[in-house]
Write a structure and sequence with these properties.
This protein has 3 helices and 8 strands, in the order ββββαβββαβα. The strands form 3 sheets. It has a 4-stranded mixed beta sheet with strand order 5-6-8-7, with helices on both faces. Strands 1-4 form a two-stranded antiparallel ribbon. The protein folds into 2 domains: 30 residues, no CATH class; 105 residues, Ribosomal Protein S5, domain 2 (2-Layer Sandwich). It is globular, with a radius of gyration of 19 Å. With 150 residues, it is of the alpha+beta class. Helices cover 28% and strands 24% of the residues. A hairpin with a 3-residue loop joins β5 and β6.
Amino acid sequence: MVFWPIWPLRVDARSCRLAAPEDASALLFPISKPFFAIMLPRKHRLTADKDVTRVLRQGRAVFTNLVAIKAVANDLGYARVAVVVSTKVHKRAVERNLIKRRLRAVLTTIIPKLTVGVDMVVMGQNEAVGRTQADLGAAVEYCLNKLRLI
């Protein structure tokens, strides 16, 4: 069990910044996960290596300067997704993980729109570094429209 501090924030008049109250230790409560985590539901995750390699070998591909998507049909009736960002995109793991988090957040809103069972691998490209979530979302929707999935 992890304890996350939750306190009413107040604005400091001098610095115009958010500040915590003086006695923040009394305002802790236990939660099992951080409330800010955005995750794909487990059934929508493509986790097995054999499934990912099958999609990469057999899937239809659409590329933009921000993302590339490879997709192949499955018999499950729902979509499964893997998000991949190579070290060629950026050498720092912090930047690669930021791109992956943004892509996953976009995919959590798009997956309910998919009507067919499909396995997808979403790959971040070089231009995705420093782009906003809205830019990545537009690129993902463009690719899915080209694949006729939404």
